[in-house]
C-alpha cells in the first residue's frame, strides 16, 4: 500500500531580523500511511508544528525557505502553485489548531464558517445539501444540537464546544488527511477524552489518516498507531506505539518517557529527568544534537552527523549506540 | 484522615460569590465560585486541589493567599483567623508565611529588573538581611539552591527559559522563609522534562525548608506523584477528599471517577480512553 503523505529530507529555514537563516526543521523524512494515526511528539521548539505547517505551506513565504520534498498522493506540494494549494487546504487536507477561539472568526456565526468551507470548494452545491453536510459534520464532531449551534457566534460556546466546531470544519469536506496540532491541549481532561474519542471514531469510519502533534505521551499512548519523536528539528526515533513505549532506543525518547509522571504502577520517589534544557538552534554543534544532555554521550557522538539506524524494519533511531544503550528509565531509577 | 499534629492552615466553610449586574436590568446574578469549602493543610504535607477550569481552585488559592476577600467563611494560619485582617496586619502576619508561585513564570517577574534584584526586592519588603550585601548573599544562595548560577543574577527575565524562570519564582518565594507555598499550576506551562526537574526540586526543598504545599492543578498525573492529600473540586464544591492513594485507587464520587477515567494512561498496553 502506498503512502498518503511522504516527507523527504525536508528542511525549513526562517530568516531572522538580521537576515540570517536558521533551519528550524533539518532533514525530516516521514511517511503517513492510509488510515493510520501518526503521533509527532517533542517539546516546544523541536519543529513538530513547523514540519506539518509546511505540508500546507502556512508560513510567511517571504521569510521561509523550503528544501526537500513533500508528496501528497501524486502531488509535489513544495512546487505546486498557490492556486492549487488552496484546493488542497480544507479539502483533501484538514487542519485543527490548538486554540479553537483564535481559529474561528468572532464576527461570523458557526453556520457561516462551516458553510464557507463547503462552498469554497464546491461552488454549485444546492443550499439544502450544503446545510445537510454542515449539520452532519457537527453531529459527527459530537455536537448535541447542531441546528442550534449553526446560528451561534463563537463567544456563545465553550472551549470544548468550539473545538468540536473546528473539528467539524476540518472534516466537512471529508479530507483524506487530517493534521491536528495539539487539538486537546487547551481543554479540560474530560473534554479531551471525548474529543480524542470523536477523532478516533471518525478515523475508523472513514479510513482517513491523522497526524497528531502533541507533547503529551499519554495522548500518544492512548490514540496513535505509530510515533515519530522530534528533537531540535530532527526526527530522532520512529516506531509503532507499542514498540516505542516498550523498547525506546533513543536516549531522548527514554528521557521523555521517564519524565512523565505515571498514572499506573508504582509512584517513583523522584522522576528521572533529562538534565539541562533544549539548546538554541544556533548553538547546535557538529554531531548528535542531544549529546549535551545525553547520559551515554561520548566522543564518537560528536564526530559527524548521525543518520537514522534501523533497529528493525519498523523501528529507527538516530543514535549510534541504539543497540547497546540500556533503558534510561531503569538505569537512573 | 488522622493526624498527630495540628493543621498549619485551616479553611472553614469558605464561600466566594461574584455578583454581576447587567447594564440595563437591575437584577443581579450571583455566581458561587467557591461554595462552602473546608480543608486542612498539615505541616510538611502536600495538599492538591484538583478540578477543571472554572471549578474554583484558583479562587480558593487566592483567598488563602489573601489576594481576594472571601464572601463568607474563615481561613486560619496556625489557629489565627486572618480572613478579615487589614492590609497592614496581613503584611505583618501572613505575607511572609504564605507565598504563591503562579503558572506563567514570565509574567510573574518584572521584565525591567534583573532576577537578582527580583529576589532582593522580596527580601527588602520582608526586612530580611541587615545590609545590601547580606541580602545579595541570601539571594545568591537561594538562587543557587534552586539550580541557577551566580552569573545569572545580573540577567533579565527575557534571557531565561521558562523552566529557569520558574526556578527564579520559586527562589523568590523561598527567600522570605515562608511556611506555606501555594503553587497555582506552577508546572503546567513547562515542557515535560523541565516539569520533571521542577517537581523534583519542589520535593527536595519541601523537607529542607520545612514547607507545606497547597498544589493547585488540573494535571492528575502530577498530583499522583507529588501530593499526600487530594481535594476534588467541581463547580465550586469539594466533592471528595482524602489520601492521594485512596482517591486514585478507590474514588467514590461520580465526578472523581469520571475525571480519573479521562486521564490518558502512559502505557499503550493499558489503553482505556477509547473503550
Automatic annotation (TrEMBL), chain A:
Which keywords does this chain's UniProt record carry?
Answer: ATP-binding, Cell membrane, Membrane, Nucleotide-binding, Transport
Please give the biological process terms from Gene Ontology that the record holds.
peptide transport
User: Which cell locations does it reside in?
Assistant: Cell membrane
Q: Which GO terms describe its cellular component?
A: plasma membrane
Where is each ABC transporter domain found?
Answer: 5-257
Q: Give membrane topology per the record.
A: Peripheral membrane protein
Q: Name one GO molecular function term.
A: ATP hydrolysis activity
Main localisation, per the record? membrane
Q: State the family it belongs to.
A: Belongs to the ABC transporter superfamily.
- Any idea what this protein is called? ABC transporter ATP-binding protein
UniProtKB/TrEMBL annotation, chain B:
Q: Name one GO molecular function term.
A: ATP hydrolysis activity
Q: Which Gene3D superfamilies match?
A: P-loop containing nucleotide triphosphate hydrolases
Keywords, A to Z, come to: ATP-binding, Nucleotide-binding, Transport
Domain named ABC transporter is located at 9-260
Swiss-Prot/TrEMBL GO biological process terms: peptide transport; transmembrane transport
May I ask which residue range the UniProt record assigns to the signal sequence? none
Q: Give the family from UniProt.
A: Belongs to the ABC transporter superfamily.
The organism's place on the tree of life at top rank: Bacteria
Q: Which InterPro entries match?
A: AAA+_ATPase (IPR003593), ABC_transp_ATP-bind (IPR050319), ABC_transporter-like_ATP-bd (IPR003439), ABC_transporter-like_CS (IPR017871), Oligopep_ABC_C (IPR013563), P-loop_NTPase (IPR027417)
User: What name has this protein been given in UniProt?
Assistant: ABC transporter ATP-binding protein
